[in-house]
């Protein structure tokens, strides 16, 4: 088991390196850099530009060096926990980002738990009651969840929550807690605000998971061991819980790996619409103003989050299913 | 029926040979219906299988109609895309009536009076029951440039002379929503198709090379696929879309967006192609082709890929909704297409505010075609996937 975990963690390194190279290429692609837009902005405001100061800043952040050197500089910095400097906020990225990373993790985690809680019973019901009205109804609801864009759902929920409950949604906490340190009241406020984004982000993932779980369970239900168990006189419920359910549980855990990137994607858009205090709104601003280290760190962080999520699901799968860790090879 | 007597033990059994004509091949002979199935081509079998999936069939027809429609958008929309009706800003949808005071007139709308509500400063539109404006069909209306090439002014339906006809209301500039939704279809629907074409080609070429050659190429491709699949797609799309300079013309941006959507989507297809090829390349017919001196590209393209093309097409169909949603999301965030190009995503940006939904809910109508098209593509893809392997 330990060998498998170690091997799996080793495999993350090239993946993360490739991701970092890709992210760096993307943030380097736009012509010009932040300083050029900064200079033109200053000029437009009619202020004098101190070229010497700009050049000094350039040298300080390594902009006089070729991109390859800057890439290594950036990666080395990240390994030491230094994510670079946000030009727009004139602060190190670490300080700008602050809580937002943790709130993103929080939202994603809760969304996954929500997805599970919803998808598992619905998937089982749909598979055991195939072609019943309940199955059709739930499948249809799921498809609607899949088809409605996240941002639209966010808008509609915002509107109806406003109309029915009179609460304004948006944000992840009461604004008075915004820059406060963590406290019980703040945690409570966050939990109160959390359910809306979790539902919005979770719907599409839930729909997809129910669909795959149903197909998977239907395959298992036709296996001969199920027939044998029934023939032995096991009650339908015990048959279901004892065999097919355990088999599809494997698949269930493995599926986290595939829905996690989707959940994080959805979380970004929803966060922008609802102006949550997560990475989404800041990422889009950073992208628009070419604040490249900030944007790069966000992209890197989001990718890291999903890589870690896949790792956890792989390890959980290895614990559940001995066949996988004995192979020691790829998990898919 | 006579009861067969069991002969006495030891008694000679009667020997009997029927003299009736006998056809030794009668077992193998098939009824007409059977031979029709056995001789049918693969395409025909797929079609028969597909037809059974009612919902998929309906979806296919719906999509077919929509894609035919985008050829004639200018003709089908009652107004020109950019026509502004300044008297009708944020006007709600107009109802089509058939009877006026119990008398049949044919399809018509009532004219409208606008008053300004001085408390809320909102425009209030009321139907004027004396102003009957019959609709005209196959009529001359706003001029347009068909596909940007030919001048024309023929419309399927237009308002009465001097009247208005806004079936789905108007937006904040007084532009007709119905016309804008119809025009948006052209961009929103083609973006998915172009994107999927790019990702289809990439998927077959890269997945094909990896699966056919194996070894180091396979390893590298596997890694790249893993990386691309582990990065959340929308932030990546956002980053790539943000790169495109503001100075680019809208049409170049449109192409850029399709390329971005396609460039990041090929991984699923490449995986499918690769795993199929890994199994198929050991087949005898591949060896035969190699011995005949066929090149790699010929073996992959002519001998291997056609074998599971139907699967690939089904997989690709299921990927299209993701692209349409992606475009909508990007445009909604202001990173995708920009006006004057009109897509459903751009139309939805107008409904960004909760107050807009409260006051002018018809601005959310572009979401209806988005949802319908995505559902239709899902059903269509499901049906294709079930039918893709008719021999099962």
TrEMBL record, chain A:
| Assigned GO CC terms | plasma membrane
Alphabetical list of PANTHER family matching this protein: INNER MEMBRANE ABC TRANSPORTER (PTHR30465), OLIGOPEPTIDE ABC TRANSPORTER, PERMEASE PROTEIN (PTHR30465:SF43)
Question: SUPFAM superfamilies in the record, alphabetically?
Answer: MetI-like
GO biological process: what's one of them?
A: transmembrane transport
- Organism annotation: Ferirhizobium litorale
**What membrane topology is given?**
Multi-pass membrane protein
Coiled-coil features, chain-numbered ranges: none
Q: Which residues cross the membrane?
A: 7-27, 101-124, 136-161, 190-210, 252-274, 294-320
- Which Pfam families does this one have? BPD_transp_1 (PF00528), BPD_transp_1_N (PF19300)
The alphabetized UniProt keywords are:
Cell membrane, Membrane, Transmembrane, Transmembrane helix, Transport
Q: Give the primary localization class.
A: membrane
The organism's place on the tree of life at top rank: Bacteria
Family according to the record: Belongs to the binding-protein-dependent transport system permease family.
Return the protein name. ABC transporter permease
Domain ABC transmembrane type-1 stretches: 101-311
TrEMBL record, chain B:
Q: What is its main location?
A: membrane
Asked whether the keyword Transmembrane is assigned, the reply is: yes
Membrane topology designation: Multi-pass membrane protein
Q: Where is the ABC transmembrane type-1 domain?
A: 185-381
Record's GO cellular component terms: plasma membrane
Q: Which SUPFAM superfamilies match?
A: MetI-like (SSF161098)
Q: Which residues cross the membrane?
A: 55-76, 187-212, 251-273, 312-337, 357-380
Keyword annotations for this protein, in alphabetical order, are:
Membrane, Transmembrane, Transmembrane helix, Transport
Signal peptide span? none
Some GO term, biological process aspect, for this entry: which one?
Answer: transmembrane transport
| Pfam name, any one | OppC_N
Q: Which InterPro entries match?
A: MetI-like (IPR000515), MetI-like_sf (IPR035906), OppC_N (IPR025966)
Subcellular localization, per the record? Cell membrane
Gene3D superfamilies per UniProt: MetI-like
The text of the family note is: Belongs to the binding-protein-dependent transport system permease family.
Matching PANTHER family:
OLIGOPEPTIDE ABC TRANSPORTER, PERMEASE PROTEIN, OPPC IN A BINDING PROTEIN-DEPENDENT TRANSPORT SYSTEM
Q: What is this protein called?
A: ABC transporter permease
Please give the organism.
Ferirhizobium litorale
């Amino acid at each position: 088991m330990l060998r498998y975990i170690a091997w799996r963690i080793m495999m993350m390194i090239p993946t993360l390196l490739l991701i970092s190279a890709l992210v760096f290429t993307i943030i380097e692609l736009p012509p010009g850099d932040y300083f050029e837009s900064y200079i033109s902005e200053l000029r437009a405001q009619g202020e004098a530009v101190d070229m010497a100061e700009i050049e000094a800043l350039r040298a300080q952040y390594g902009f006089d060096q070729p991109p390859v050197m800057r890439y290594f500089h950036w990666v080395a910095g990240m390994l030491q926990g230094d994510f670079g400097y946000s030009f727009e906020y004139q602060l190190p990225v670490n300080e700008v980002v602050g809580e937002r990373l943790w709130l993103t993790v929080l939202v994603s985690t809760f969304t996954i738990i929500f997805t599970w809680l919803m998808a598992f019973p619905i998937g089982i019901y749909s598979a055991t009651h195939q072609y019943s009205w309940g199955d059709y109804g739930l499948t249809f609801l799921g498809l609607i969840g899949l088809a409605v864009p996240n941002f639209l759902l966010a808008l509609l929920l915002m509107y109806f929550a406003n109309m029915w409950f009179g609460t304004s949604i948006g944000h992840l906490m009461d604004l008075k807690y915004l820059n406060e340190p963590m406290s019980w009241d703040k945690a409570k406020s966050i939990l109160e605000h959390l359910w809306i984004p979790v539902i919005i982000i979770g719907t599409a993932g839930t729909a997809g998971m129910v669909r795959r779980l149903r197909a998977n369970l239907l395959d298992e239900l036709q296996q001969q061991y199920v027939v044998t168990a029934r023939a032995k006189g096991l009650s339908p419920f015990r048959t279901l819980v004892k065999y097919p359910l355990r088999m599809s549980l494997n698949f269930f855990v493995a599926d986290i790996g595939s829905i996690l990137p989707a959940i994080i994607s959805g979380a970004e858009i929803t966060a922008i619409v609802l102006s949550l205090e997560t990475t989404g709104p800041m990422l889009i601003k950073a992208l628009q103003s070419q604040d490249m280290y900030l944007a790069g760190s966000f992209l890197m962080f989001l990718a890291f989050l999903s890589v870690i999520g896949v790792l956890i699901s792989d390890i959980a799968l290895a614990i559940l299913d001995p066949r996988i860790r004995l192979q020691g090879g790829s998990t898919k | 029926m006579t009861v067969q007597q069991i002969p006495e033990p030891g008694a000679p059994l009667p020997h009997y040979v029927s003299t009736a004509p006998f056809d030794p091949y009668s077992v193998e002979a098939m009824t007409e219906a059977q031979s029709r199935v056995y001789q049918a081509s693969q395409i025909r079998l797929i079609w028969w299988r597909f037809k059974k999936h009612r919902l998929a069939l309906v979806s296919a027809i719906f999509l077919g109609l929509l894609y035919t429609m985008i050829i004639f958008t200018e003709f089908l929309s009652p107004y020109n895309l950019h026509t502004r009706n300044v008297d009708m800003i944020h006007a709600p949808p107009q109802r089509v009536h058939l009877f006026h005071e119990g008398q049949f007139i044919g399809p018509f709308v009532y004219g409208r009076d606008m008053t300004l509500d001085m408390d809320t400063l909102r425009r209030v539109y009321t139907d004027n029951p004396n102003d009957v404006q019959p609709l005209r069909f196959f009529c001359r209306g706003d001029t347009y440039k068909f596909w940007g090439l030919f001048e024309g002014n023929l419309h399927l339906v237009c308002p009465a002379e001097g009247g208005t006809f806004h079936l789905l209301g108007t937006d904040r500039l007084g532009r007709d929503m119905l016309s804008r939704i119809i025009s948006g279809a052209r961009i929103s629907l083609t973006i998915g198709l172009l994107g999927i074409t790019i990702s289809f080609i990439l998927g077959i070429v890269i997945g094909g090379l990896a699966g056919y050659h194996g070894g180091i190429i396979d390893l590298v491709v596997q890694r790249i696929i893993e990386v691309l699949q582990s990065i959340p797609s929308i932030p990546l799309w956002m980053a790539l879309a943000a790169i495109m300079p503001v100075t680019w013309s809208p049409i170049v941006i449109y192409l850029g967006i399709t390329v971005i959507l396609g460039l990041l989507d090929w991984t699923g297809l490449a995986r499918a192609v690769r795993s199929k090829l890994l199994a198929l390349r050991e087949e005898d017919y591949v060896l035969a082709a190699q011995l005949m001196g066929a090149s790699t590209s010929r073996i992959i393209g002519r001998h291997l890929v056609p074998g599971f093309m139907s699967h690939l097409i089904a997989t690709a169909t299921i990927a299209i909704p993701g692209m349409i949603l992606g475009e909508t999301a990007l445009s909604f965030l202001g990173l995708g297409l920009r006006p004057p190009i009109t897509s459903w995503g751009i139309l939805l940006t107008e409904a960004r505010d909760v107050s807009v939904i409260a006051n002018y809910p018809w601005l959310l109508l572009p979401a209806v075609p988005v949802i319908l098209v995505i559902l239709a593509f899902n059903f269509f893809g499901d049906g294709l996937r079930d039918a893709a392997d008719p021999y099962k």
